[in-house]
Amino acid sequence: MRTFATESISKIGKEISVSGWVNSRRDHGGIIFVDLRDHTGIVQLVFNPELSDFALAESLRDEFCVRVSGLVRERGAGLENPNIDTGKIEIIVSKLEILNKSETPVVTTHDDGEMANEDLRLKYRFLDLRRPHMQSVLKKRAEFNKIIRDYMEDKDFTEVATPILANSSPEGARDFLIPSRLHAGKFYALPQAPQQFKQLLMVSGVPKYYQIAPCFRDEDPRADRLYGDFYQLDLEMSFVEDGETVRTETEPLIKKLVTDFAGKKLLDNKVVQLTYEEAMNDYGTDKPDLRYDMKLIDLTDNLKNTEFAVFKNAECVKAICVKGGASLSRSQIDGFTEIAKKEGAGGLAYLTYKEGEIQSPIAKFLSETELGEITKKTGATNGDAVFFGADVRVRVNKVLGVLRSAFAEHFALKDPKTVSLAWVVDFPFYDWDEKNKRLDFGHNPFSWPKGGLEALKADDKLSVVADQFDMILNGYEICSGAVRNYSPEVMHEAFAVLGHDGAYVEAKFSGMLNAFKFGAPPHAGCAFGLDRMFMELLNLDSIRDTLAFPKNGSGVDVMMDSPSGVEPTQLGELSLKLNPKDK
Questions:
Q1: Cα separation of 423 and 108, whole Å?
Q2: Quick check: bond before 521 cis, omega within 30?
Q3: How many helices (H) and strands (E) does the chain have?
Q4: Which residue in 180, 203, 403, 423 has a CA-CA distance of 20 to 30 Å to 343?
Q5: What would the pLDDT profile of 549-559 be if each residue is shown by its tens digit?
Q6: Rounded to whole angstroms, how far apart are CA atoms 80 and 284?
Q7: Averaging pLDDT over each range in 24-28, 37-41, 267-271, 497-501, which range is the top one?
Q8: Distance (Å, whole) CA 151 – CA 249
Q9: Quick one: which of 288, 276, 344 has its CA closest to 320?
Q10: 275 DSSP β-pair partners
Q11: Distances (CA, A) of 89 to 22, 27, 35, 132
């Protein structure tokens, strides 16, 4: 049908040929009606009994692939179908050709059909993709990519492809390793990101680089992350010494995608900027959703003299005021308490404001003055509820940050038509790894520490700040970027703080460190996670629906049966042997 759906009126009275799939078939007293579907939509076919191919038409079933020729006719008065673009016309078929038959579809090809479970949809993805919704998603993804490419070209970025077979390097996630046949015992790694290559391009004299890059991480799947391969807008700029330059260059593109591409409202028509410390203290997360307020209120000083043991013995006491929270039932509060416990809290203390009174199991342990301070500082009024976190500050922030999102979900505060954008800046260069009881990089080793080499020599390593930034869209991290480390001396010192000697650094980053010895310019860049952004902009239920052929939640391609076993001869060529228990 090509663009037939949008040109149907101009085709009236003309003989045409169209191809597609049988969407449905109806037999009305000797006349057969078929809805034919292709990527542009649906058109009604009419098969009259005198047609020589009428017997063939009687054999048609859903998803048969056919080609027909016939006369376009205007439908009679009252017979129009306003639900489809071609609803005012129909095709009187003069010739039918069945290009291929179909078995009974295992999953629906209709948007209004009963949806199968995801694994079955993915096993028969070629059928699932026939649904108009999925056809639309594929087109929108192409449009999305084109907007990005057009913008980057307009800003004089050069698209450069970087290698897929690379070296293994510590970038925060597990690598996919590929054994080498030609170099037994050695391995390639699929790149977690083109990080080293894009920095090498800056040393090579490329002023502004970008690509829509495939990236690979062997991490467990989750709702907002694809397993295995995903895509990002990767970019880098040379002779840039501050993150603000990169943010200024890329911000208009993201605003354009929000408003022009997705047709959504940008909250307050601006992108907010927060420091990492502000985000954690005010929202309990470095990925705050700003479509709703509900800030974390610090009550530590207000309650420093309290006799309530839970608050008295805590390093930090914070609260969030939930508007309308007094309507929560006891069982609902118990549900939120379980959420808090999963994040490490011992329980969930709260106050409710009902009928002019403060009601709560803990109210009797707090003085009138303390209750007044809580009410004043949280802004709680009749009908609200105040929930508390009391523990070490890190855990309080984490627990209340998760609860803040859960309460917003419950009270429908996450407006799907609105997008909040925020830059979070000044991340810690180092973090404390509680599990292994040691320092580790906050993000990756390629960021520039503010203050350079001298900052790394400070006694308090956790006070070192990286010129690093993230962009947050509705509570999702869609971008991470930084001013890059381009000094061998600073790179060695950054790793030395963690106990790694020079030989370790040279072994892991020899190519990049060698390049830095030959007049490397200062440079900065970032990478936007396109799948996650696309999912949120289009309000898709699953990030797996952003790609044509994704793996399932267990990292398995159930359509292609991947991962799969290989022939023993292939293993032999790679000098590999399977563990007997894995055979």
A1: 42
A2: no
A3: 17, 22
A4: 423
A5: 999 988 999 99
A6: 56
A7: 267-271
A8: 10
A9: 288
A10: 425
A11: 17, 19, 12, 20
C-alpha dist (Å) from residue 125 to 220, 222, 279, 355, 544? 22, 20, 40, 55, 11
Whole-angstrom distance, CA of residue 377 vs CA of residue 302: 9
pTM, two decimals, is: 0.90
Residue 453 parent element (H or E) = helix 452-456
Tokens 């947050």 map to which residue? Answer: 472
**DSSP β-bridge partners for residue 73:** 90
- What's the CA gap between 552 and 562, in Å, rounded? 11
User: pLDDT tens across 299-347, in order?
Assistant: 999 999 999 999 999 999 999 999 999 999 999 999 999 999 999 999 9
pLDDT of residue 60: 96
* Rounded-to-integer distance, Cα 504 and Cα 356, Å: 66
Please name the amino acid found at residue 523: H
> Is residue 524 within 8 Å of 486, Cβ to Cβ?
no
* Radius of gyration, alpha carbons of the chain: 30
Question: Residue 524 is inside which H or E element, if any?
Answer: strand 523-529
Is the model's pLDDT at 444 over the cut of 80? no
Pick the closest to residue 46 from 89, 5, 77 (CA basis).
89
* 237 contacts 524 by C-beta, under 8 angstroms: yes
Smallest CA-to-CA distance from 516 within 199, 198, 191 is with 199
Looking up tokens 């342990």, which residue turns up? 365
d(CA 126, CA 96): 24
What does DSSP say about strands 176-179 and 438-441: parallel, antiparallel, or unpaired?
unpaired
Instruction: Work out the pLDDT band at 223, boundaries 50, 70, 90.
Output: low
Q: What is the pLDDT of residue 446?
A: 84
* Cβ atoms < 10 Å from Cβ of 283: 27
Residue 334 is given by DSSP the state H
**Contacts from 54-57 at CB under 8 Å and sequence distance 24+?**
56/96, 56/98, 57/32, 57/93, 57/96
What does the alpha-carbon distance between residue 510 and residue 369 come to, in Å, rounded to a whole number? 63
Picking from 274, 273, 254, the residue whose alpha carbon sits closest to that of residue 264 is 254
Query: 3-class SS at 573?
Result: helix
Q: Is there a contact between 403 and 320 (Cβ–Cβ < 8 Å)?
A: yes
Nearest CA to 348 among 389, 307, 299?
389
Q: How far apart are CA 303 and CA 505, in angstroms?
A: 49
Q: What is the pLDDT of residues 458-493, one digit of tens each?
A: 899 999 999 999 999 999 999 999 999 999 999 999
Contact 380, 374 (CB under 8 A): yes
- The interaxial angle of helices 276-283 and 393-410, nearest 10 deg, is 60
pLDDT over 60 at 88, yes or no:
yes
Tokens of 75: 């439908």
Joined tokens for residue 85? 């673009």
Contacts of 291 (CB under 8 A, 6+ apart): 267, 408, 413, 414, 415, 418, 419, 420, 474
Q: What is the pLDDT of residue 186?
A: 93
Most confident region among 227-231, 434-438, 557-561 by mean pLDDT: 557-561
Rounded to 10 deg, the angle between the 502-516 and 488-496 helix axes is 160
Which residues, in sequence order, are bridge partners of residue 476? Answer: 473
Furthest C-alpha separation in the chain: 95
> What's the token pair of residue 17?
């040929």
Q: Tell me if 170 sits within 8 A of 507, measured CB to CB.
A: no
Closest by Cα among 552, 530, 519 to 477? 530
